[in-house]
Amino acid sequence: MTLPRRLRDFDEDDVRVRPGRRGSRPRTRRRPAHEDAVTGFVTAVDRGRYRCLVDERVVTAMRARELGRKGVVVGDRVALVGDVSGEPDALARIVRVEPRRSALRRTADDTDPFERIIVANADQLVIVTALADPEPRPRMIDRCLVAAYDAGLDPLLCLTKSDLASPDELVGSYAPLGVPYVVTHHAAELGELRGRLGDRVSVLVGHSGVGKSTLVNALVPEARRAVSHVNVVTGRGRHTSSSAIAFELPEGGWIIDTPGVRSFGLAHVEPSKVVASFPDLAEGAEHCPSHCNHLQPDCALDGWVAEGHADQARLDSLRRLLASREGTEPD
Length: 331
Ligand SMILES: Nc1nc2c(ncn2[C@@H]2O[C@H](COP(=O)(O)OP(=O)(O)OP(=O)(O)O)[C@@H](O)[C@H]2O)c(=O)[nH]1
Ligand SMILES: [Zn+2]
What we know:
By secondary structure, the chain is an alpha/beta fold. It is built from ten helices and 15 strands. The strands form four sheets. A six-stranded mixed sheet has the order 12-11-10-13-15-14. Residues 3-23, 225-231 and 236-241 have low confidence and may be disordered. The structure holds guanosine-5'-triphosphate (GTP) and zinc ion. Guanosine-5'-triphosphate is lined by residues 160-161, 163-164, 185-186, 206, 208-214. Pfam families: RsgA_GTPase (PF03193).
């Protein structure tokens, strides 16, 4: 398994192997209770079973009771004990989840108080949007940008189906905001996209039909088989209920597909963070009355847009998100 550079650094900082008191055995700095634990990278989760990569081996594991309520998600780095042979029917135990570098979260909808982590330790959120069939949904893009900003992930706009429509309009609205993008279609060379994915952990999100599976299959030839024919964790059966699956890229790095993720509820994101994710509007919001919720009549953002600093459509999008969080309007 080739870990992206940042994961490797993380590993070295986190588990410092040094001689024990008597200089006889190496031991980890923390929790010497599981001195013999090995480190795994969680690539799929399905019905209480965790698929972990340990060196080149696929090890199936369950949670150890001592983990308590701590969740384990795709992208986590975990300490494993027990049978880590990777033989059929072998089952290891996850005894520890290493501290996360990032956590992509969502709530079921914008007013749901329960947030859940979808993916840990990712670097980048790839927002897959078709240029046509289905029509692009800028409000969905804005929503994903907020999720990326909140999680500390770099966004990347991936505009698919460029054989059907021009990217100019979408590029015209997002490139000035500093959002990086790639334009592609199913018969295109994927060189530019691969360059942006290499040596990083990227999460792909996108609505049904935008061409996400087509993209994943083109980037990772083994993906098709892994997803459609076998349970990705146990290797048996036909189906998986997994909501995220990590695939290693041939050129290094990982992409994490999120087939089960259909929406990005943002109830857990502070309104100020929502506004901060709209860089074209954030500056204008500095002129708002204190505690402005940006939905009230004296909000300074109307003037900001009237003066031509930002597009009305972006303000509408921000307001829909904020209103939806307050439960006053569906998005
Ligand atoms: N014209 C065109 N069609 C494409 C392109 N990429 C994918 N398609 C078609 O769009 C449809 C949806 O593609 P998928 O890859 O299944 O889309 P998805 O986002 O994975 O959708 P779900 O499987 O529903 O999650 C399929 O009929 C593809 O053949 C493209 O670049 N151009
Ligand atoms: Zn305001």
